[in-house]
UniProtKB/TrEMBL annotation:
<dbReference type="GO" id="GO:0005829">
    <property type="term" value="C:cytosol"/>
</dbReference>
<keyword id="KW-0378">Hydrolase</keyword>
<dbReference type="GO" id="GO:0008967">
    <property type="term" value="F:phosphoglycolate phosphatase activity"/>
</dbReference>
<dbReference type="GO" id="GO:0006281">
    <property type="term" value="P:DNA repair"/>
</dbReference>
<dbReference type="Pfam" id="PF00702">
    <property type="entry name" value="Hydrolase"/>
</dbReference>
<dbReference type="InterPro" id="IPR023198">
    <property type="entry name" value="PGP-like_dom2"/>
</dbReference>
<dbReference type="InterPro" id="IPR036412">
    <property type="entry name" value="HAD-like_sf"/>
</dbReference>
<dbReference type="InterPro" id="IPR050155">
    <property type="entry name" value="HAD-like_hydrolase_sf"/>
</dbReference>
<dbReference type="InterPro" id="IPR023214">
    <property type="entry name" value="HAD_sf"/>
</dbReference>
<protein>
    <recommendedName>
        <fullName>phosphoglycolate phosphatase</fullName>
        <ecNumber>3.1.3.18</ecNumber>
    </recommendedName>
</protein>
<comment type="similarity">
    <text>Belongs to the HAD-like hydrolase superfamily. CbbY/CbbZ/Gph/YieH family.</text>
</comment>
<comment type="pathway">
    <text>Organic acid metabolism; glycolate biosynthesis; glycolate from 2-phosphoglycolate: step 1/1.</text>
</comment>
Length: 217
């Protein structure tokens, strides 16, 4: 689909649900490296497997990924250990995410809101950590609500639509993963894919609306 038409879909939506990693910030690969660093003590093979899994599953919460990665490392993923590894990952990743490049055009779109749209932020990042990142990026006032893990994106969209009385046809989900697409489909709203090198394979046969960035030129 032509980029101009996809940007028209974006500008005509009244309500936009934004994913974060890979949509607002170019932080997917950074998080993959952070996961690999945390699991490096278990060997290069495990670290590499972890990195590749993260790339293919960007919209999945670390609370699902880390138990899996621990099992790959031959470690029983008990609750306290999972929490410890989540904390290690946060310590490595958060500042790098804040410093990562913006997806072109998105900072101006979010901060200027040229079409007076209602913005909501949905992410698999833990809620309290997501709030810290948003504050550091001076995006506090851009979103009506911010939802991180453990709330799932489909549940967050459904709750917001019901509470605000939105019509599904006026809503748009912008994401870069199959999980984002599924969250949109579950709520019968339009999905706009942000294409990048890490999701080329997953969306090879995708024929819906997509953008490479949010520049209008």
């Amino acid at each position: 689909m032509a980029a101009s038409l996809s940007l028209s879909v974006l500008s005509n939506a009244g309500v936009i649900f934004w994913d974060f990693d890979g949509v607002i910030k170019e932080s997917l690969e950074i998080k993959g490296e952070a996961f690999a660093e945390v699991f490096a003590p278990f060997g290069a093979d495990t670290a590499g497997r972890v990195r590749e899994h993260h790339k293919a599953n960007g919209g999945v919460s670390r609370y699902e990924k880390i138990p899996l990665y621990l099992s790959w490392a031959g470690v029983q993923p008990v609750g306290s250990l999972v929490e410890s590894y989540c904390a290690r990952f946060s310590a490595v990743a958060m500042e790098r995410v804040i410093r990562s490049p913006w997806v072109p055009g998105v900072e101006a779109w979010l901060k200027n809101n040229p079409f007076n749209q209602h913005f909501f932020l949905l992410s698999a990042t833990p809620h309290t950590e997501l709030l810290e990142i948003v504050r550091a990026l001076d995006l506090d006032s851009s979103f009506l609500e911010i939802h991180g893990a453990p709330m799932g994106k489909a549940d967050a969209i459904r709750s917001i639509i019901e509470r605000y009385g939105y019509r599904p046809e006026e809503c748009l989900m912008i994401g870069d993963s199959k999980g984002d697409q599924l969250a949109a489909e579950k709520n019968s709203i339009t999905f706009l894919l942000r294409r990048h090198s890490l999701n080329e394979v997953a969306f090879r046969s995708y024929e819906g609306c997509s953008v490479a960035d949010f520049s209008e030129g």
